[in-house]
């Protein structure tokens, strides 16, 4: 009976039951993010007036211009980080193999910091700097970790070392630039969705969508790489070329997200593993990682906005706090295997 209900849910909704749970939780958070607040909607009638466009001008501006753009940013960036984490964890075949641990987001931060120092706080220069910085750090990790092939564990260790080196460089650079530049970089480095507007998020969403499509198109090859380089090569996959393309896609997703919000930890590390456990799968799923990543960042941003009365925290502080707890659990669990 349970099996038939599961099949019915899958065929009717196009989702697995676990994805439906994530979907409904996301809808609930969207509703709360948009309409929660005594000056916005006191009852369901106020919500309905907002939906049909008959609310006051102030309420409409707050909900559809400020809150909706921030909410959309959380969904898109969370999905991008989830997919990026899934790509890297698949490539290194290790749950610790995410941009947070291997230092690619730190490399993106370095690129943005250099861009701010030399060109000012220009949006597109920051995006370009983040992508180039992320790719540079990925190239360093790739080159230093190569020893007659790639070991997932070696990639993680080298990534941690590169991350520490770039963090030291970032701190040195912050001390040498002007006070205004250092303050701008410090505020940005906290990772925040404050001030996200439609004009800022839509171009980034277009870029993120393009790279996510590339990731899904490469999904079959990625799954073959999980079976081992020799098996993948025997099945017609160009191993090194495919790995480089996947790394480029994963780094670009992280870099674009980092460029517009600052570094946001935990999402790319946790989303693929939570999704894998929800679906009871042996490998990570790009689609489920995107869903869970969007939900995690939306939940973290909701906590950042409403967790402390009278103040709004940068969402990066919330995610890094949760990420520290999760990382300790993950390292403990992996050590027992």
From TrEMBL:
Q: Tell me which UniProt keywords the record has, alphabetically.
A: Cell membrane, Membrane, Transmembrane, Transmembrane helix, Transport
One GO term in the molecular function aspect is:
transmembrane transporter activity
The record's listing under SUPFAM superfamilies reads: ABC transporter involved in vitamin B12 uptake, BtuC
What broad class describes the main subcellular location of this protein? membrane
Q: Which Pfam families match?
A: FecCD
User: What protein am I looking at?
Assistant: Iron-enterobactin transporter permease
Q: Which GO terms describe its cellular component?
A: plasma membrane
The organism is Marinomonas profundimaris
TM helices/strands, residue ranges: 20-41, 71-92, 104-124, 130-146, 153-173, 197-218, 244-270, 282-304, 311-331
Where does this one sit in the cell?
Cell membrane
Q: Which family does it belong to?
A: Belongs to the binding-protein-dependent transport system permease family. FecCD subfamily.
- Topology versus the membrane: Multi-pass membrane protein
Q: Which InterPro entries match?
A: ABC_BtuC-like, ABC_transptr_permease_BtuC
What GO terms describe the biological role, i.e. biological process, of this protein?
A: siderophore-iron import into cell
